[in-house]
């Protein structure tokens, strides 16, 4: 069973529907026992880093997630706000985050690019440059477009953990991985057939 | 960098797609979910459902459409038409809709935008506006006036000012629909689109007038739109989404090509 961890960060049902559509056994839960029983974990969500961390701490999920990822070494996929709170801290709400990976999270600055002012948040389809091979990219062509909705982006301290990059005024890390952990800033569940392919790759991944 | 989005719009009444949509390719005519799936496979970047159901009793049918769509397509889609309250928004979002769009209700009660933003985040809230060109006046300096109730009622409000206000109130995107261009297939209202795109810092989706691929090229370049709505030019099979994209790509417009 795959557990989608419910920490009240936005609507998780779109991830649930996508994983079900792919034919996997999946449920949304915040029950510690169910999370411990799960074979792999998905950590999705939209919203603000500070509020998400508050809920994770209050529900005891912050410690549980760390234990499941670092000690139990379960396959773990973080999406959108998920990729932001696995780093040490975020400019958003000055939040102290989970610290599963070293690094920080920054706000996009409004900048000029060609003749346009870049809008924040970025909303839409942007290219995913695969800078390292990873099982989640199996069968996905390089430079494919994926769907983003974000104002913040992560900045890993360790460049060797970046597997995918994108460009929005700055070149930024949009996919990171380490051991049994993989995380994307873009929404796999809203990125069409290519997103589903990556989601399925995760569901079948044996790190 | 972001690609320009092409968004087919489906008008839905009592759970069926309305007005002369002539689909070939074995699509179940009139079923919004089947049509959304067809456009998803064709490479649409997003889908818009516009619910024109008259009676409020029939709104549950639309929620059923939204929820079946969520199990079928895996790109963003928005739902508009008849969204008046936070509860209306909640039902759409819980059913799986990515975004809700508000139009007349926001003009009459602008707070709905802010309430929606607080409850769901601004990325969920689309402010849609129906606009008509008029003589510039002190009340309407841009010469573009806001209309509501499907273009039947003039509000004496300036469209550029309303767009800016909508952004301040918390809208995440704007749909700018030109009443003059709508249904003509003679091209988007480029001046209106550009005026609004230059006035706000959120994405602008142009609506009304798309008839051929060049119209999309024009609205993405001269009109500075981030996205464009297409209806009859694709519903009647005149153009495929892939043809429009091919045309734009050849002319150097960034579009999504892998799907």
Structure, briefly:
Helix content of chain A is 26%, strand content 33%. With 207 residues, chain A is an alpha/beta fold.
List keywords for this structure.
heterodimer; A: 207 residues; alpha/beta; Rossmann fold; 9-stranded mixed β-sheet; 14 strands; B: 259 residues; TIM Barrel; 8-stranded parallel β-barrel; 10 helices
Q: What is the count of structural domains of chain A? A: 1
Strand content of chain A: 25-35%
Structural class of chain B: alpha/beta
CATH topology of chain A: Rossmann fold
Approximately what portion of the residues of chain B adopt beta-strand conformation? 15-25%
Order of helices and strands of chain A: EHEHEHHEHEEEEEEEEEEH
CATH architecture of chain B: Alpha-Beta Barrel
Kindly identify the CATH topology of chain B.
TIM Barrel
Number of helices of chain B: 10
Total count of strands of chain A = 14
Helix and strand content put the structural class of chain A at alpha/beta
Q: How is the quaternary structure best described?
A: heterodimer
- Spell out the CATH superfamily of chain B: Aldolase class I
Q: In what order do the strands lie side by side in the largest sheet of chain A? A: 2-1-3-4-14-13-12-9-10
Percent range of helical residues of chain A? 25-40%
Helix count of chain A equals: 6
Most residues in contact: chain pair: A-B, 40 and 30 residues
């Amino acid at each position: 069973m795959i557990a989608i961890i419910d920490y009240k960060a936005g609507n998780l049902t779109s991830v649930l529907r996508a994983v079900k559509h792919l034919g996997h056994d999946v449920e949304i839960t915040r029950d510690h026992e169910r999370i411990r029983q799960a074979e792999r974990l998905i950590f999705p969500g939209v919203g603000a880093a500070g509020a998400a961390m508050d809920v994770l701490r209050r529900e005891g999920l912050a410690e549980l997630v760390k234990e499941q990822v670092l000690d139990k070494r379960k396959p773990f996929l973080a999406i959108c706000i998920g990729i932001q709170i696995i780093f040490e801290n975020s400019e958003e709400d000055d939040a102290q985050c989970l610290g599963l990976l070293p690094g920080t999270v920054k706000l996009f600055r409004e900048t000029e690019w060609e003749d346009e002012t870049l809008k924040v948040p970025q909303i839409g389809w942007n290219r995913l440059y695969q800078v390292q091979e990873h099982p989640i990219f199996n069968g996905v062509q390089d430079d494919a477009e994926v769907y983003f909705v974000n104002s913040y982006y992560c900045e890993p301290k360790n460049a060797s953990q970046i597997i995918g990059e994108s460009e929005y005024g700055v070149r930024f890390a949009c996919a990171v991985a380490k051991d049994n952990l993989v995380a994307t800033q873009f929404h796999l569940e809203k990125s069409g057939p290519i997103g589903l392919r990556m989601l399925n790759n995760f569901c079948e991944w044996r790190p | 960098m972001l690609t320009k989005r092409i968004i087919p719009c489906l008008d839905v009444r009592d759970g069926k797609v309305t007005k002369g949509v002539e689909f070939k390719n074995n699509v179940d005519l009139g079923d919004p979910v089947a049509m959304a799936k067809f456009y998803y496979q064709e490479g649409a970047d997003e889908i818009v459902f516009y619910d024109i159901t008259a009676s409020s009793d029939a709104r549950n049918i639309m929620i059923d459409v939204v929820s079946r769509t969520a199990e079928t397509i895996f790109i963003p889609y928005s739902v508009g038409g008849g969204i008046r309250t936070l509860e209306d928004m909640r039902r759409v979002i819980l059913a799986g809709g990515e975004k809700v769009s508000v139009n007349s209700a926001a003009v009459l009660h602008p707070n709905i935008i802010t309430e929606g933003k607080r409850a769901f985040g601004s990325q969920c809230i689309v402010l849609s506006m129906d606009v008509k060109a008029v003589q510039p006046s002190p009340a309407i300096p841009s010469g573009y006036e806001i209309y509501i109730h499907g273009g039947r009622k003039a509000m004496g409000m300036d469209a550029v000012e309303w767009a800016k206000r909508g952004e301040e109130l918390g809208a995440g995107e704007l749909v700018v629909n030109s009443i003059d261009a709508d249904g003509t297939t003679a091209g988007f209202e480029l001046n209106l689109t550009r005026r609004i795109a230059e006035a706000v810092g959120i994405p602008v989706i142009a609506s009304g007038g798309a008839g051929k691929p060049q119209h999309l090229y024009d609205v993405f370049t001269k009109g500075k739109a981030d996205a464009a709505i297409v209806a009859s030019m694709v519903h009647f099979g005149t153009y495929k989404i892939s043809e429009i994209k091919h045309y734009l790509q050849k002319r150097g417009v960034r579009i999504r090509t892998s799907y």
